[in-house]
Records
---
Amino acid sequence: MSDLAAAVTAALTHSILPSAIARGATAVRVAAAGEDGVITLEADGSPGAVLPILGRIEAQLRAAVPGVTAVRLAGPVPAAGPGDLGAAAQRILDAEVNPSIAAHRGHVTAVSADGGWVRIRLEGGCQGCSLAEVTVRQGIEPLLRARLPGLTGVADVTDHEAGTDPFFSPEKR
């Protein structure tokens, strides 16, 4: 293991891994460390848990390890094309998820899909809900993973801070 990879691994273990695990990843490790300082990370568990905080991870790694110039997230090659994956995800969401979360005034939409990733937006009572992360990581993502073999992960791109009527407000945590 190179010195750069070892330094990044130490920084991951001490400051970044707890946040990633709290979001649903089971492990985050260095897949490659280029001579140019580009670090490629792999995440086990829910890789969609790491994607939304990748910018924060990069900032922390660059501050902790001066040789880091960029951070990327590796993932498996998807089996379906981007249009197929997004449309298939939306069909599953409409048939199996939205009827359930409608009881909480919620709705979920597949915003985009590329590289095996489906980006979703939670709306209505789900936007800003204190249990939104649980809904995504323990409900939506496992369902989509079971039904879509080409899925790498699910990323929640919802602006939860803008939620005006969450079903469970953050104060109810």
---
Amino acid sequence: MFLTIIIVIFSLITLMSLHELGHFLLAKKFGIVVEEFGIGYPPRIWGKKIKDTIYSVNWLPLGAFVKILGEDDTSQKIKGSFSSSPLYQRILVVLGGCFSFWVIAFLIFTFLAGLQGVNVAVSDNYNGKEKPFVQIFSVAKNSPAEKAGIQMGDIMIQLKSAGAEQIQTDKVALVQSFIYEHKGEQIIITLKRGKNLLDVPVVPRVNPPRGEGALGVGLSRVINEQTQWYKAPYVGLKTTFLQTKAVPQVWIEIITKKIKKEPTPNVQFVGPVGLGSIMNKALQYGAGNYLMLIAVIAIYLAIFNLLPLPALDGGRLLFLVVEAIRKKPIEPKIEQQATAVFFVLFIMLGLFLTIQDIWRLF
């Protein structure tokens, strides 16, 4: 368990460090002074200055940071500062962090495609050469599935009723039909979890809550798309694009349902503890599944960071766009105050989600 926690923390710190590396490399490319590149947050454990930059390791393992000369004070127009650089360079430096997340996802998907293949969702009408399987991508809270110990990532192999009726599962509609026909009866679901096969008894609900199925799981028909190593970059690029496209579609669907006051049983907002729990479960399914999750997290972080909110890269980008339109920068005091307010709001949101995560765990 301790080793798992270390792996999860190391993974998150590495993700955030590579994000900051994107800012760092572009700043260096344009001759902008980077005062410090830090792993973790102060107080400092160790630091070494090389030329203009201090490279440090810090006590709080909450990510990483770069301190760029003149980034927080746009009135600081000295040579080599962020604020004195051309507008297009500042925009590219800001975008560099988000771009690095997409590079991470692309490299992971490429590596997996060439090594063991990547899982891709397909419809029930798919009839290609790869063998499809039905995988559980979500489990509703307090549902029969959760109480039976069914987990996200489990693969359905077989369903069997008390009357000895059984089916091999490879289509979502087939699974849903079987469960519907046996509501209120005990069925046995054979699951593949990692390398293990499990027989799980469960009773589908007769009257499930609105928006949830009788079992309380989200299902997807999936294939493992394998390719030759020299074609792996194409698969990596395609998978990165498809995952990027899917994220805003999911967000729009969730927001639409919330506005219409429709239930979203398969949606769960998590903080650092909840994310760590999800990563821990993915790790139990093997390194491939864990790396796949890391790539998806990287894409989510890239898109989230581009939201036009102060304290995010997208907020800084918004200020730069306004500067381009106005032909002069926004008052530093206004930008700093907006950033401080949103930073506090994000901290409060993080604390709220963390408390919620801990409540779910216990």
---
Amino acid sequence: MKILLAGGGSGGHFYPIIAVAESLKKIVKDEKFVDAEMYFMAPSPYDERLLFENNILFKRSYAGKIRNYFSVKNFFDFFKTAVGVVKAIIDVWSIYPDVVFGKGGYGSFPALFAARLLRIPVVIHESDSKPGRVNAWAGKFAKRIAVSYESAAQFFPAGKVAHTGNPVRPEIMDPITTDPGKFFGLDTPEPVIFILSGSQGSQKINESIIDILPDIVENYGVIHQTGKTNFESVSQTADVVLKDNPRKNRYKPLAYLNVLALRMAAGASSIVISRAGSAIFEIALWKKPSIIIPIPEEVSHDQTSNAFAYAATGACSVIEETNLTPHVLLAEIRRILNNSAISSKMIASTKAFAVRDAADKIAREIINIALTHES
């Protein structure tokens, strides 16, 4: 059995693919199927360690973005994608997988195009409340379509779509609540705010937090994932802002969180501030109140609709970036943390949104289709 996994070049695509791959391995082992050979096709490996640990072979593809605004890069990216499609056809033909699983994003297009041409069955998963260009196109010929948000189902053929939720790696589903404050060296018994600024880091969120940092540490602890590129500037600015503050040890900036640190931060937190990508599903599984700050719609077509779809459940509040000021953010933090009725309602609402077995459902369908194609 051969399975080709394809996705864009972001963590929002990569980590759900790893969650599905882990479920595939488990099902194959538990039910004693013929061992599955897995391949990952994308513009970059993203995390070579995780690919190696899951015995997934990397196949590089080339793909360019289609931007919603004028850019000379659109011209060059068209030719990059054309070259990537030719290479993908050759690579997919040499592998000839029994099924291709596409996670969406521009990086998955060459593999899906090759699968379409070579008549290889396709399964796709849509993470967002509205599908992107690639998945909207692939949905027309995919055998099965999984969606994270129920509202996304309307964009696909009814007989092929299922609401599965978003795949999350089992190792990060459950927070660790044993001395998480001690793990981070936080000098606080107070409620803790956990800021997820994304792998690249959000300058707007980071700046807003720094501006209100002296006010926050008066009553709360802060675990701040800044993003690798912003860590040095944020931590240095925070040192200046909190230089003579007796509560400066209530603030902990971090560039990146490994699995253990992520679970510890989730366990320590009373509220999470995040973008509106796949982290929403992790926050829901952690059962945490949250403030979601989506990337503006002109930059990301999906995050605003994702944020409001999640807010419709009652599990979070949303601050659009155009409305984000330090004082608005501080007021919203206080409104939620200082009112147990509000935070309790948000926690209760996360339970209806969280889906623990999304990866298993998708992996099961991939295997069923692969076995049919194999025979």
